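As a next step, we paired sequence with structure tokens, yielding the entry below.
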Amino acid sequence: MSATQGGAHPQGLDHGLSSSAEDPINYRPSMKLNKALSSTGLTATKSKKNHRSGCCGFCKPKPPIEEVDCVLIGGGIMSTTVGLMLKDLEPTWKINMYERLGSLAEESSNGWNNAGTGHSALCEPNYTPSSGPGEVEIAKAVTVNEQWQLSRQYWAYLKEQGLISDEFISVTPHMTFAYGEDQVQWLQARYKCLHQHPLFKGMQYTDNKAELMKWAPVMMEGRDPSDKVALTKVDYGTDCDFGALTRDLGKAFMQKGGNLLLFHTVTALKREKDGKWLLTVAKNDLGAKTAQIRTKFVFVGAGGWALLLLQKSHIPEARGFMGFPISGEFLVCQNPAVVDKHPSKCYGKAAIGAPPMSVPHLDKRLIGGKHMLLFGPFAGFSPRYLKTGSLLDLVKSIRPHNLIPAAAAGLQNLDLTIYLAKQLLATDNMKFHELLQFIPTAKPEDWLKVTAGQRVQIMKKDPKKIGILQFGTEVVSAADGSICGLLGASPGASTAVQVALDVLCKCYSKDGTFDKWVPSIKKMIKSYGTKLSDNPALADELHEWSAKVLGIK
């Protein structure tokens, strides 16, 4: 070895940063000397012609049809939850999961594409609408919290089994912000109804200026002293990186024997005479470019594309559904001087008439190990049903059977069309003005714009109104339970466990299979079948247990 090579010494510095023509790494013999070089040039073995393989994918022999028990379409939080549950309940079943991208959780489940709130109705105003002067309706809030408790318990069970880590979830206090006399009165009524409820114990309220400064300094500094503001706070709220959780669930699914196939796109579904489904899957392999899979059950957890796939299945239950895509945008702050002053998630009240997804919130987030603040969301528009979807998605979903319900829903919600138009026309200065309502001392240079994920707002037929706009999650399944898909959004990932149980119950009850599973489900989710609102002692016990296991409050 030359004296100038290797080691960390001055003589070797130039040699380490640059190489000359004499360097061995730059020497190679001429390709002309190798007569046996393959056609691609990768190996020294002469390429042999295979006259039976065909020259293009469409003329190559098709592989045999693969027989499986279950197919999951999409690699998000819903497919991984349903898949892992099924592998626990039926270890011998052959289950394939198909994801069109190169990794799990790249669309709606990705940390950047959702709010990351452990939605438990501790702070979200849209779950507690006013029902009269000094009154609020809390039924929806209680339902969402009950569903959240199931998620906590299932994740704690998986953590105890060593199947997932607890790094996806962190303690982040949840606060609700009221601005102006009317909102403060509403918040007082909300606090009065919730703080003594077993699932909302520990909720605090204040309109005291000194206390407000302690709870939310970044929101109170520089604020006009005459502003009428108030906050509620729950210290045991959480922030969830649902992307990290989804990848953990996917690993556990494979550990249990599930088969995850990336870069595989389901392009067609056909019901056979015996009730099974024949799926066509596109893949960029060196063979026929496609494969066919026969299965007894199909779960469509493909986010916005679920509607298109359910339409391809031609099940009557999917008729009348139409989707309108809406994108989102958050303002993101990574300045530690600002981020460290706001360790909470704070939800404000949406403007009168605004859709539920427009609730403004200022959130402390932890994504990929990075602490930051997100504010928004602001609405945007793209005709894609997925962030990585096609510009033709919206057009492809139009059918004769969904045009009238969609038109009726649109006419009944013209104000939302106007709202969306205003959002699309909003300038950076307008968005910054909205931020100032939460952070009076905000600086424009601290906040950058990030495009969030795509939502597909569902419109469906209705016997009374012809067509309606739906803001929640819709489970659509065939009458025989052989195929099931999810449409819609909120509260989304936080209630994935409840939705997964609903899917399994809906699709496997007729033959008694679900009843057989119930004892095993109760081992995974200790309160399954019990309403925790009616059993405060059990609620406290399970909350304390899951908090200890997951390292939260």
Observations:
- The longest strand covers residues 447-462.
